[in-house]
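Collaboration report, partner site 2.

Our partner group contributed sequences for two proteins of shared interest, and the home lab folded both. The records are reproduced in the order in which they were received, starting with the first partner submission.
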Amino acid sequence: MMSLLGRTDVDAGEVFVNFNQNITSLAVATSGGYSLYSLGSVDSTLDKIYHTKSDELFLIERLFESSLVAIVSQRAPRKLKVCHFKKQSEICNYSYANTILAVKLNRERLIVCLEESLYIHNIQDMKVVHTIRDTPCNPQGLCALSSSSEHCYLAYPGSVTAGEVQIFDAINLHAKTMIPAHDTPLAALAFSPSGTEIATASERGTVIRVFSSQDGSRLFELRRGLKRCVSIVSLSFSTCAEYLVSSSNTETVHIFRLDRSATETAEGHGSKQSSDDWMGFLSKTVTSYLPTQVTDVFSQGRAFASVTLPEAGVRRMCAIATIQKQLRLLIASQDGYLYVYSIPTVEGAECQLIKRHDLRLEDHYAMDIKGA
């Protein structure tokens, strides 16, 4: 989720965009109000579920497909409102000592993130059940909450100088594990749909790692780039958990395929490489001759596919979901567009643009700017 506290984006005509937990709807907020869209027929149309005029919002979260939304306005940045949008009623509101930087929801918990504390609410009655105080300074409101009720974990930075991830059990209310994920501070976090895995990226932005959220073991290491340090804005597992997508302040979106069968085979039968797997061959051959930093590069997964968008410097939220039995890459950008791409079945092939929707239009369907 984006934290847009200054809201200079609103003056520029830009919007706040955010997917719900299972990528079935999109929330869009502008200076005049907010809208909720269904993604069920996004290949052709973008159905508007709800629209209301309201104060300028900088945070909005919908709970799955329910009528529950949590919102924070620019006018009252310390106040959280929980509303039933279909009944157009306010369920409750809470005020906090400092500005709310992020809000996360699942079917068990509601999390409110401040700069140096986290509040855990019970979703059933909205009461605060626990407060994590004196957390490392977190001015970006970086945190993640698993959408799973079975593995209901909260993740947040454990250090301001290194990329440590603190995993907290939000049901049993105790710290679970601390993962030393990166040498530099964290920039992005995302749980898998099951909550058993967490993806991380640091401020350097060149390497993305995936860990077990239960024991902290490293599962995947993915290289976004070799030299170009970037600011990663969004990390997201696909709803099938087979892919991971990342966006940054560059014009490129990267999709990684998480081959768990290969990982399990390697663990069970050694690191046998196929004859055409030249990267694997090189990594084995040169390990004893090159520094660890160099040989690590050979073992890091490359992007399965990528998308190049018109310009850099635009914040984009990305998601991969199965829509009408087809796997789709969805890119919601702060300049007011939703891009829909097909995902190739062959590594290295191009993602094909299916639709580009304009999120700023006021009719019942977002206009199709470019057809399939």
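Second partner submission, folded after the first:
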Amino acid sequence: MANAHERVFSGVQPTGNLHLGNYLGAIKRFVELQDRFECLYCVVDLHAITVWQDPAELKKSIREVAAAFLAAGVDGTKHIVFNQSQVSAHAELAWIFNCVARLGWLNRMTQFKEKAGKDRENASVGLYAYPNLMAADILAYRATHVPVGEDQKQHLELARDIAQKFNNDFSKSIADLGLAEKFFPQPEPLIAGPATRVMSLRDGARKMSKSEPSDASRINLTDDADQIAAKIRKAKTDPLPLPETVEEMKTRPEADNLIGIYAALADSDAAAVIAQFGGQQFSQFKQALVDLTVSKLAPITAEMKRLVADPGHIDQVLGSGAERAEAIAGETMNHVKDIVGFVRR
């Protein structure tokens, strides 16, 4: 039974080519959290445009991500599925947080440095400031928990810092309005299970990414059984048999990645996978991984294709979700405007 006082917010960017890393690191966990929390799952299209997107492709990708949520088992009637741009509170609160957050905080964000690369002067202001928008995404709903991968922990820490500074900066106003002293909560990270960070099939030191030039580096959620089998069989490995201890995995990144993927798909852990396959040749293990991956992803892929073929239904789900999200975020924004000192209708 969900606890009404515990609310989860999370989102996925609609930038095309959803892959196994998106599923294991985010979407699969969205489904698992439904029974424990009140959940809002967002297609974060405002984040997507921090780099240029083709408008027609962006619409297609928004619907595809929503379809993936539903196909994987997210219940869009019990919980809220929507796209970010339909709820104006995200952008409104992000501006207020732009005025609360400090430049020094954003300068420490390692993801901007990675994404902008050497040509930082040409990066968009949105790409630089998007951690403030991420904080607004979470805090507009006063979410208490956020499922995040290791690479997003720093952004969640920033959201916590922004929440604390807002509460401190406006403590008198918050008290005068009779609101809770800690108006914005300190959202807690939910980091659990194997394969929270799925790596490339071609390089165990690089994260699986939709932007990687080689399609063989990732398993797309739209891949068929033959494509999945070919990619796993060609996945990079070292010449040794599978590790026989969890400790040994730490120095063998490709083996660590494949074992982590198997464990996550099997709802198991690395120790159990090693107990079953440790010391075997990779060829045997890869066949078992093919069979497991196909059995888990094939139903999701089929349902995604069915849903994508009915964009009107997806738009209805997103629109209904946006109305419900707006009701929560609107209440937050009314309080925020009063706290800050704006005059409102």
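Feedback sent to the partner group on the second submission included the following. Strands lie at 3-12, 37-43, 80-83, 145-147, 188-190. The chain has a mean pLDDT of 92.
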